[in-house]
Amino acid sequence: MPAPKRKTAPQEKAKTGAAKLARLGLRTDMDLALHLPLRYEDETQVQPIQAAGFMGGHAAQVEGVVTASDIQYRPRRQLVVTIADDSGPLVMRFLNFYGNQVKQLAVGVRVRARGEVRHGFFGAEMVHPTYKVVQEGDPLPDRLTPVYPSGEGLPQAYLRKAIAGALSRVDWRDTLSPALLAELRLQAFEPSVRLLHNPPPDVSEHALLDRSHPAWLRMKFDELLAQQLSLKRAQAARRSKGAAALPRIGELSESLMKALPFTLTGAQQRVLAEIRADLHESFPMQRLLQGDVGSGKTVVAALAAAQAIDSGFQAALMAPTEILAEQHFRKIAQWMEPLGVKVAWLTGSLKKKEKLEALARTESGEAQLVIGTHALIQEGVEFSKLGLVIVDEQHRFGVGQRLALRNKGLDAQTVPHQLMMSATPIPRTLAMTYYADLEVSVIDELPPGRTPIVTRIVDQNRRDEVIGRVHAAAQEGRQAYWVCPLIEESEALQLQTATDTHATLAAELSDLNVGLVHGRMKPAEKQIVMDAFSRGEVHVLVATTVIEVGVDVPNASLMVIEHAERFGLSQLHQLRGRVGRGSAASVCLLLYQSPLGPVAKQRLMTMRETTDGFEIARRDLEIRGPGEFLGARQSGQAMLRFADLETDQWLVEKARDVAQKLLHDDPATVEAHLARWLGGREEFLKV
Description:
CATH superfamily of the domain at 251-443: P-loop containing nucleotide triphosphate hydrolases
Strand order of the largest sheet: 6-7-4-3-2-5-8
Number of strands: 22
Number of helices: 26
CATH architecture of the domain at 251-443: 3-Layer(aba) Sandwich
Largest sheet: 7 strands, mixed
Helix content: 40-55%
Strand content: 15-25%
CATH class of the domain at 251-443: Alpha Beta
């Protein structure tokens, strides 16, 4: 048997290059064609060295002959090369270099170099310029040179060559008809892509960089259209699946409504009617329930669960933390158990015997409502007749986790109805773009009797005054939270820690009971402290962000957030929402360490100016961009590469309308457009 042929060096090199491109998601010619430049360099002209020397701090391109080339060892090892033209010399300094560069840049070689010109000890110099060896009279490029997003070990020259090859091979057929392009006033696809890869020097560089050029508008529109088509197809696929209709609003729903110690607000009644209508259908509900902190989402979820139970099915509620899950369990069980509903509690920290008992009750159907954490989606958790899944703080779960709970339905053909809740309001544009396959309900009013929260920004140096404020509040019978960002000392961040703060406050407020909860405590220990705080026995609760959501103590009216500059806007808003739940005037003090960076300053000013969750979410989106806002890595959303949701909202609306029309009239175009833009990545958008 002959020995297998050994791969040649060029084959090995090509394979390695392909693997590096694949790591950037560049697998096909069309992937490469749509890998558009980040910026451009103007290599269309050469300046005399002397003229470039007057451009200190700016990039310039020069050409000269090497007159000296030395490796120097002081102050550190570096390659110093001098080139000169008729107008004078320029030094090129390389702090990192290879042996072959020394040979390449030998005396007498002609070099074209581009970089930022600085004034060094020996006159004009460039540190680490890009350069190439040329012959006298070699022509200059007639186009701007693209600079592409790259990865480790992928030089620009390799990317440019790979992309140029792909541009000669791709199928340029336009997925949009000439009539549609004329109606939308968009450029054709091929000239747009070609211009962005190789713009002529007379194109406005500003229009290329701020992506307002017509070629960029075409790319943004196509990307948004692909996303809208994919989401709407996911919605249609969901509607084609079966779900058990849950039409009965029976004795339990009516008794629960009567037993509630308050009347639903108009907004709660409106969203409940929307959910009830969805549950009547025999295709699965996929509804996002948004409501600001304290707007009363839990009671709406409980009434939805009651409808599922009235209709003869089970409901499950999953929350991201044990504290929040337990808060839901206590509140909902308190409403429902007196009405004869069996509520099970399922979490990772349960003792084995209790866990087995909860699993058996869930599987047999004896437990009509099951509340818990991620434990609900583990193997071995079986439901008898799961009709409704409620996911709280849905953005805190990954796509796979949300799917796992939905897949605990009756069989492969039917899935449970799904209600997702979020106290992080999602700005309209974002909801329209990333949640186009969800119906969205919004609770946009707070229950009566809630007092507005006053927010103050306080320098860390005034800590003693803040401690005095906490003491005064406790003397008046009120309680306070004191939130710290870390549990153990981190030298890098030098943050005040929860354990240290607890010790300090316990010493300085010796006549008060100061409690402590943090993420490293056992759930049972945390619960003992939380219960004592709820009963009013603990006056001040020092905590990490474990109290961010779900904690409801109406008597707590003062919130101190230490190192507030370290928190994100939505986290600050969530934490502030732990107070203002009773009738007493509530205050939130944001302690910060100066000096403040511009982003931290923006966040704290926003907190001081508004308590409106939607306005905070809008500003948060402005500060962070959609990827970080949604938690791109864990949310599974395929982030937009080209479109910007702040500036391109008008394009989102056009793309949504065109998507609707194409899905109805032209399925072939839909397939071609999705294949071009999403390839195999459509799954990202489906949860």
